[in-house]
Amino acid sequence: MTEQMQRVHVIGSGPNGMAAAITMARAGRKVDVYEAEAQAGGGARTMELTLPGFLHDFGSAVHPMAASSPVFQSLPLERHGLRWIHGSAPLAHPLDDGSAVILERDLNDAEAALGHDDGRAWRKMVEPLVKRWREFTSDALGPVARIPRHPLLMARFGIFAFQPAQTLERSMFAGERASALFAGLAAHSFLSFDEPLSSAVGLVIGAAAHAVGWPIPQGGSQAITDALVAHLRELGGEVHPGRRIAALDELDAPDALTLCDVTPRQLMAMAGNRLKHGYRRSLNRFRYGPGVFKIDYALAQPIPWRAPECSRAISVHLGGTMEEIAQSEFAVNHGSVAERPFLIVAQPSLFDRTRAPEGKHVAWVYCHVPNGSDMDMTSRIETQLERFAPGFRDCVMARRVWSPAGLESMDANLVGGDINGGELSLRQFFFRPALGNYATGTRNLYLCSSSTPPGGGVHGMCGYHAARRVLRDSAG
Known about the structure:
The protein is an alpha/beta fold. It is about 40% helix and about 15% strand. It has a seven-stranded mixed sheet with strand order 7-6-12-13-14-11-15, with helices on both faces. A five-stranded parallel sheet has the order 9-2-1-10-16. The chain has a two-stranded antiparallel sheet with strand order 3-4.
């Protein structure tokens, strides 16, 4: 093998780019990672976005899939400072009657909290995944085009996962509380609840609540990135922040092995005529999903929830009933927004006092919007917050508002505000972004972003599988 072939370029330092880089470095390759922004991490960055001393997660905040990731679990990230923090419950979902549905960490407690019939239904859906979580994640976070190692487990999951969320909810739950809880989980798919696969993400992260919890890294999501960067450097690799690669020819060895932690749009711009016509045509057909409108808050006090049990959880879903959340997601997937949008809220400083000055707090809130939407959702978001936490606006010291365009300006992978690297449609479940998944059809050029299987989430598995594909190809 030549010196040039031993060198590896990775473009992008998000979790997938870093996982690809580490996998290649562990195989003995000399790896350089190029990051366009001044701070490594992509969607896993933590910054002072409002006031000094208030540490906000730019992208991801709560990390059940990072805690589940087979590749992250195989790395000495704790030795490099990564510490996981849990709330006393993974998730709270307040309702208009002043109470909240709590998804408890212990499955027995969760069953009891949801009531006899709905609790049994919840257990029926998730218990097989919880009991065999390591086996399940090894398949669920693997490449799509392969025979699963645990086919019966995956088949059972598929029976539930491929159903539209509204179909599964009607067949499983009788009560409003369990239905609302499931709706909030299913909304993480970004799909309308009448579409296939809209149940899948909710089942996975719901089961994760019992298997590994929904933790945050102490100090913010940057701690994940910093640990990955430190381990790569320990292996002899290097990260070059502030080095934007607009075209592959800018690399000092443009024909070396290159893995791109970018989405199809950026890959086409970087690679130019290196991409074959058929592959470029497939990339042009790739569909991005809905975007998000996000607000980071610096708060003078904790969020004043009407249901005080919401303070037990780092993550809170706001949206009321199943019907209301379904309406919100249907609107987004048909080009509009609901008057009462579904919100995902994170309140990390309740459990991590490093995130804000003494007595103060941070909050992270977003809703879904059509891709590229320019509608200002601030008023609707804060009206929803006031609905479940009266007096919220009085707590706000400062806010930083992010439209889809604003998010994309900070991370080019967030095309139109899409945080999942592409729509989770049936076609893109199997062909993401094209038939070859990681291989582009161009020699020495591979894609390793969340636009490849298994898709979005801070787990690094897209990068890991892409690197394993590179190693297999280069060995042949």
